[in-house]
Specification:
Elements (H helix, E strand, L loop, with lengths): L1 H6 L9 H11 L2 H19 L6 E7 L18 E10 L2 H69 L5 H36 L23 H5 L3 H22 L5 E9 L7 E7 L18 H44 L3 H4 L13
Antiparallel strand pairs: 1-2, 2-3, 3-4
Helix pairs in contact: 2-4, 3-4, 4-5, 4-7, 7-8
């Protein structure tokens, strides 16, 4: 007997809404991608805030190619073997601007992760609640079908006893057929709801669901709605994009000031001649600052400055739209919480649908 109890398979616990949210977060691949993007941006910020490495230069100058001294490194007084080091002196303001630009990218990636997590939890909760209410609807229809079948028996008995008509029997059977059609439709909707839930939680979607959590309270309050919406994940992403656009402007303005380069070179000639040391300073001449011709250069100041007002307008429009949606949702939720308990307080006899048509004789 003990071995039989051990051999029994362990029953899986019902799938709660909190467990579904946890499984969806564990299965998500977008969240680790956002984390990796944030880490990469912060590492790029560290690298962008440092000066470039020095450049080692080596070469041979003025090597003769004909005559008696051709290809000789020591006979001609102009032939030199040179080795040098060049260092670009990047301005501190430009380094800070570059680092700040990647820091804004990291903040946008972190805000994007928060937004992705919020969307994931929203979609998972909708799928869980959809399946829950589809199952409850299916149970209600099954009970209605059982009651309607009893009405068929009552209508048949009344017709045989001469207290009812054949039309009452047909009406009762038609009601059962209509309920069965609704049950078939509910089965299709329930299968769709399970498929949607399996998209987020995987094989756990086949487990039975636990009871629905309390949905009576709404965290949104009308008195401080604007302050709460200001912390919405989508608003945080838009504000991060606005800060990134502002960082582009500051970086483009810093790039208008060129960076100097210093080069120190040692040149060795033949034994009969003196060695030489050269010191060179170079600075780029920015003739056309409207079009930056470097391959990896950030956008120009004019183009970047146009992005900042656009990002601000987009953030403001989204904030107003979210505010209207939250006001409407809070009003709808308060209205539902005020009207739903009324029908729940009705007696069971008033909520039960009478399937026999009006005028039919009661069942014996």
């Amino acid at each position: 007997m003990l071995l039989g109890l051990i051999a029994l398979p362990a029953q899986s616990a019902p799938l709660t809404l909190e467990e579904a949210l946890r499984l969806a977060q564990e299965r998500s691949r977008q969240l680790p991608a956002q984390d990796a993007a944030a880490v990469a941006a912060r590492e790029m910020a560290v690298a962008a805030g440092q000066r470039p490495d020095p450049t080692l230069k080596a070469g041979i100058s003025n090597l003769p190619v004909n005559g008696e001294d051709r290809f000789s490194l020591t006979r001609d007084f102009m032939t030199m073997r040179s080795v040098g080091v060049m260092q670009e002196l990047t301005r501190d303001s430009k380094l800070r601007a570059r680092s700040a630009r990647y820091e804004r990218d990291a903040e946008v990636a972190e805000a994007g992760r928060t937004l992705a997590l919020a969307n994931l939890q929203r979609d998972t909760a909708i799928a869980w609640l959809d399946r829950f209410y589809q199952e409850r609807m299916r149970d209600v229809l099954s009970r209605q079908r059982d009651e309607a079948r009893l009405q068929i028996e009552a209508a048949d008995a009344a017709y045989r006893g001469g207290r009812g008509s054949q039309a009452d029997v047909f009406a009762a059977r038609s009601a059962v057929a209509q309920i069965e059609d609704r049950i078939a439709q509910a089965d299709r909707q329930l299968a769709t709801a399970k498929t949607q839930l399996a998209r987020w939680v995987g094989v756990a979607a086949g487990e039975p669901l636990a009871s629905v959590p309390s949905l009576d309270t709404v965290r949104l309050r009308a008195e401080d709605l604007e302050a709460q919406i200001a912390h919405h994940p989508q608003i945080a992403v838009l504000r991060g994009q606005e800060a990134a656009a502002q960082a582009d402007v500051e970086l483009a303005q810093a790039n208008k000031r060129p960076d100097w380069s210093v080069e120190l070179m040692f040149s060795q000639r033949g034994p009969a001649y003196s060695n030489m040391v050269s010191v060179n300073v170079s600075v780029p001449l920015q003739w056309d600052q409207t079009n930056d011709k470097t391959a990896n250069s950030p956008p120009s100041s004019r183009c970047s400055s146009r992005r900042v007002p656009s990002a601000k307008k987009k953030c403001a429009c989204t904030l107003r739209r979210r505010w209207r949606c939250c006001r409407s949702g809070a009003a709808t939720a308060s209205g539902c919480s005020a009207t739903t308990p009324r029908c729940c307080r009705w007696p069971a006899s008033a909520r039960r649908r009478r399937w026999p048509p009006t005028g039919a004789a009661p069942a014996p």
